[in-house]
């Protein structure tokens, strides 16, 4: 068993819209002033997909698994702000800690903040909140320092993934495959239609995590995580499928949100082996052909201890090292420089 | 100087009457109502586009509050125009229509092409008048001063003292952090860091046409400078028709394709399309004879709600490398 390969997950790449920094500056000046307490922000991600190059000489291109922040990031976190997210995206709740000085940013106890978010995810799993609202599994941390005079922003994202003692392996004969290798095209189409209906009902908020099964009359059915106990009644273990909206676009690896989902499955329903559907669509094209299916298992069927597991997932900077990133918006926001380029 | 001019533009916009009567076929202009209808149609046909409301203080009252402008985000842009012009010949492909009757040549990117594309190509390639018209555009606001605008990203000191402790995480896939060349060892799947654009369409009340705005990010998600953006704009247009201005609904300045000739070009494209459609219609009429099922002439004409789709096709000749959704799905 132990010879089976470890499941490796594709980390998020943060993608901040310039307008987000602008909104942060305005809020810092008009609203927060010297108050540097943490605030909730609303991010979003879309499913990954590979873009086929038009030129035969070029490789196909997989876009990074993006976690995005836009203008609406500071809206209150509720159904109305969810509905304002870009089409075909899924919400992710973050905590932003904006320090007053660069020194504060440097000496900030980042590990403690990261641990707080990790513990929040763990609590939501245990309390059942994350079953009802699975988007809570994708909580993230953003620490920033905004140099308002120079329009420079230093920032660092953390995407906490709970690490249990034993890691998930790819199950025997459960290697990741594209859906068309495993399902007939009419089933794929039925699944796509039914998932679309499910997503509309959930108004996207909780459509990022779901259950899939084939009913007796060969219909493909979709359910919410909270139906877990009843939904799979009478199903063989092989027919139980848990799906998630997968930001990864690699045909070989699932994306980051699956990590906390697996911890939830193990903790709440003692799942040790499960089939996973990595939902990937080309937005607006009704094309889900890049959706993948794999089976994962955990060799050790011991229960997870009650103690909060460790969290990992600081984003690396553009040099591939652990460290903050920076954005310089002076050319876009500095009034004196704007005047230079105006007509 | 700048503020005086923006004040002037502001007043000019305020004073120009809001178009009420449709004359898009005669002039290529559209009314705000038609912009809204065309926007709704675009969002319906290409659902990656979305209406947004923007800054409350900048709201225009001739458009609904929640439909001030259109946006599509994170649009990949794989290669620079220079590279594209290099490979243009390779990518010319014959594409057959669904009924297999006619074939045409699709240049540039081999995107899924509709008949509109053919006409746009014709206009660009053969119609000297339009080409001349486009190249005569005399707005050259950019000058060499721009060199100054490259931000010195390097002068942000690296913050070395991270104080972050993280254990090795074998379950995390190591994704390449640097740009991977897309053609070094044949076709394989990689995570490629590419430039992306947020593309906006606003309604320009003065020119009574849509106006396109671009906000670009580099491979590391840093905002692109105007010089970098010009690398993605067809050289026939860069610096002539593309200016850096303040977005009408956001507090940011970004690149915009100046709309001073949009109406004329759109009128030309629509006329061509209607001619083509009429020809087809005549053919069909011969087939149907006097049958009551015979198609009506009006059905073949371009409708105003298709305006933005056609507009995007036209724009794709200005920014050929940005692969935004402008294909009508069947």
TrEMBL record, chain B:
<dbReference type="GO" id="GO:0015031">
    <property type="term" value="P:protein transport"/>
</dbReference>
<keyword id="KW-0833">Ubl conjugation pathway</keyword>
<dbReference type="GO" id="GO:0061723">
    <property type="term" value="P:glycophagy"/>
</dbReference>
<keyword id="KW-0813">Transport</keyword>
<dbReference type="GO" id="GO:0019776">
    <property type="term" value="F:Atg8-family ligase activity"/>
</dbReference>
<protein>
    <recommendedName>
        <fullName>Autophagy-related protein 3</fullName>
    </recommendedName>
</protein>
<keyword id="KW-0963">Cytoplasm</keyword>
<dbReference type="GO" id="GO:0000422">
    <property type="term" value="P:autophagy of mitochondrion"/>
</dbReference>
<comment type="similarity">
    <text>Belongs to the ATG3 family.</text>
</comment>
<keyword id="KW-0072">Autophagy</keyword>
<dbReference type="Pfam" id="PF03987">
    <property type="entry name" value="Autophagy_act_C"/>
</dbReference>
<dbReference type="InterPro" id="IPR007135">
    <property type="entry name" value="Atg3/Atg10"/>
</dbReference>
<dbReference type="GO" id="GO:0000045">
    <property type="term" value="P:autophagosome assembly"/>
</dbReference>
<dbReference type="GO" id="GO:0044804">
    <property type="term" value="P:nucleophagy"/>
</dbReference>
<dbReference type="GO" id="GO:0000407">
    <property type="term" value="C:phagophore assembly site"/>
</dbReference>
<dbReference type="GO" id="GO:0005829">
    <property type="term" value="C:cytosol"/>
</dbReference>
<keyword id="KW-0653">Protein transport</keyword>
């Amino acid at each position: 068993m132990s010879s089976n390969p470890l499941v490796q997950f594709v980390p998020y790449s943060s993608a901040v819209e310039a307008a987000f920094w602008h909104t942060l500056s305005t809020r810092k000046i008009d609203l927060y002033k010297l108050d540097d307490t943490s605030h909730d922000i609303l991010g979003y991600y879309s499913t990954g997909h590979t873009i086929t190059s038009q030129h035969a000489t070029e490789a196909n291109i997989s876009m990074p698994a993006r976690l995005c922040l836009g203008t609406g990031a500071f809206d209150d976190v509720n159904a109305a702000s969810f509905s304002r997210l870009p089409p075909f995206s899924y919400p992710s709740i973050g905590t932003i800690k904006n320090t007053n000085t660069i020194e504060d940013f440097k000496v900030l106890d980042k590990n403690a903040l990261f641990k707080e978010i990790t513990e929040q995810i763990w609590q939501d799993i245990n309390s059942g909140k994350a079953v009802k609202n699975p988007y809570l599994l994708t909580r993230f941390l953003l620490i920033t320092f905004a140099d308002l005079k120079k329009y420079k922003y230093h920032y660092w994202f953390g995407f906490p993934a709970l690490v249990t003692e034993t890691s998930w392996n790819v199950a025997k004969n459960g290697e990741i495959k594209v859906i068309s290798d495993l399902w007939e095209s009419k089933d794929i189409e039925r699944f796509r239609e039914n998932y679309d209906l499910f997503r509309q009902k959930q108004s996207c908020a909780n459509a990022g995590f779901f259950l899939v099964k084939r009913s007796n009359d060969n219909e493909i059915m979709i359910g919410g995580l909270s139906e877990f106990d009843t939904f799979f009644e009478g199903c063989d273990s092989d027919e139980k499928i848990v799906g998630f909206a997968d930001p990864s676009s690699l045909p070989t690896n699932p994306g980051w949100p699956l990590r906390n989902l697996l911890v939830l499955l193990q903790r709440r329903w003692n799942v040790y082996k499960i089939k996973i559907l990595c939902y990937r669509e080309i937005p607006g094209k009704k094309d889900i052909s890049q959706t993948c299916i794999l089976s994962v298992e955990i060799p050790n069927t011991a229960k997870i201890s009650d103690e909060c597991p460790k969290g990992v997932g600081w984003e690396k900077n553009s040099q591939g090292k652990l460290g903050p990133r920076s954005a310089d918006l002076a050319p876009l926001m500095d009034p004196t420089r704007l005047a230079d380029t105006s007509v | 100087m700048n503020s005086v001019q923006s004040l002037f533009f502001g007043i000019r916009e305020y004073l120009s009457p809001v178009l009420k009567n449709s004359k898009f076929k005669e002039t290529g202009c559209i009314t705000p109502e038609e912009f809204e209808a065309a926007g709704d149609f675009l969002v319906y046909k290409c659902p990656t586009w979305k209406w947004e409301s923007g800054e409350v203080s900048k709201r225009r009252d001739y458009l609904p509050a929640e439909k001030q402008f259109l946006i599509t985000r994170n649009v990949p842009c794989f290669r620079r125009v220079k590279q594209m012009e290099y490979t243009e010949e390779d990518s010319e492909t014959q594409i057959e229509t669904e009924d297999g009757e006619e074939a045409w040549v699709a240049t540039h990117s081999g995107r899924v092409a509709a008949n509109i594309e053919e006409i746009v190509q014709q206009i660009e390639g053969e119609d000297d008048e339009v080409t001349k018209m486009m190249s005569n555009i005399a707005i050259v606001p950019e000058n060499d001063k721009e060199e100054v605008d490259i931000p010195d990203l390097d002068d942000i000191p690296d913050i070395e003292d991270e104080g972050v402790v993280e254990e090795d995480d074998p379950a995390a896939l190591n994704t390449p952090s640097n740009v991977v060349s897309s053609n070094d060892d044949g076709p394989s799947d990689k995570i490629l860091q590419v430039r992306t654009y947020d593309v906006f369409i606003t309604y320009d009340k003065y020119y009574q046409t849509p106006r396109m705005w671009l906000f670009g990010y580099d491979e590391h998600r840093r905002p692109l400078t105007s010089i970098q953006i010009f690398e993605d704009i067809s050289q026939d247009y860069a610096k002539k028709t593309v200016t850096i201005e303040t977005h009408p609904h956001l507090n940011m300045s970004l690149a915009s394709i100046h709309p001073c000739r949009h109406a004329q070009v759109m009128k030309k494209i629509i006329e061509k399309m209607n001619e083509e459609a009429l020809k087809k219609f005549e053919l069909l009429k011969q087939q149907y004879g006097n049958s009551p099922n015979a198609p009506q002439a009006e059905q073949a004409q371009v409708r105003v709600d298709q305006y933005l789709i056609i507009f995007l096709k036209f724009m794709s000749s200005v920014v050929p490398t940005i692969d935004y959704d402008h294909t009508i799905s069947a």
